[in-house]
Amino acid sequence: MQLTPLAVGFGATIEGMDLRQADAGTAELLRAALLEYGLLVIRGQSLTPRDQVLATNVFGKPEVFPTMRGQLSGWPEIFRVASRAEDGHVDVGRYWHSDGSFREDPTPISFWYSEVQSEEGGDTLFTDLQQAYAELQPDIQEEFDTLSTAHRNGVVHPLVLRHPKTGTRALYLNIGLTAGVLGYSADHSKALMAAVDRHYSRPDATYVHHWLPGDVVVADNLHVAHKATPITPSTRRILNRTTVRADGVIWSNPAPEAGAPRPAP
Ligand SMILES: [Fe+2]
């Protein structure tokens, strides 16, 4: 397995990997890479729905979804993102978001497998939420550290979320599903959200993933956000998405280095 960091400054491509063959050692390498880079791009895979669910288990227990039009019968773990309604969900976030941000405990990890992909359209953009926070002016960081945002469904999160494993701060905002900032007027909320939206999209900060059939992309949703670009039903595309439950996630847990003090039993 060969890991190459993406030029954008977050994320990495992994080559020489067949996810169907991932043993315990490989699984830990994948978890460590995801924790460090926030986004993994693994091309050239060939996964049945069962293979995808098994590969998702590397990162934790999958969420399950109600049966809906276009969903795969017998695989409630797989949420299909598609260009045609008969194939899956066409109304996906064309704004910066992390999947499952509307949950009380946000969805920590998303895993997409490209089953059918046309040549044109439907790229996915990614941006680094931790870097977005790190690049704010100190006075803005101080202000943002005190703020919380409400989703349209009433769920409230701090605007600055600490990663549950690393503690690193991230600027966490769903641009499409957030109703506003607590304690701010509608206009002030709108202005803040527009500013964060522009900040996420700042020059050279985003990675554009152009999908090929067989691509797997795995995102740490507390480290990166993503955004869909348009695709028309005249072209056919199906992405099978699995997501990891917040209460079932497995973060990388590196073994203590040789000579390092071991925790008391
Ligand atoms: Fe999404």
TrEMBL record:
Alphabetized Pfam families for the sequence: TauD
Keyword Iron: yes
GO MF term (any one): metal ion binding
InterPro entries recorded: TauD-like_sf, TauD/TfdA-like, TfdA_dioxygenase
Keyword field contains Disulfide bond: no
Keywords per UniProt: Dioxygenase, Iron, Metal-binding, Oxidoreductase
Residue span, TauD/TfdA-like domain: 3-243
The name this protein goes by in its record: TauD/TfdA-like domain-containing protein
TM ranges: none
Higher taxonomy: Bacteria, Pseudomonadati, Pseudomonadota, Betaproteobacteria, Burkholderiales
Similarity remark: Belongs to the TfdA dioxygenase family.
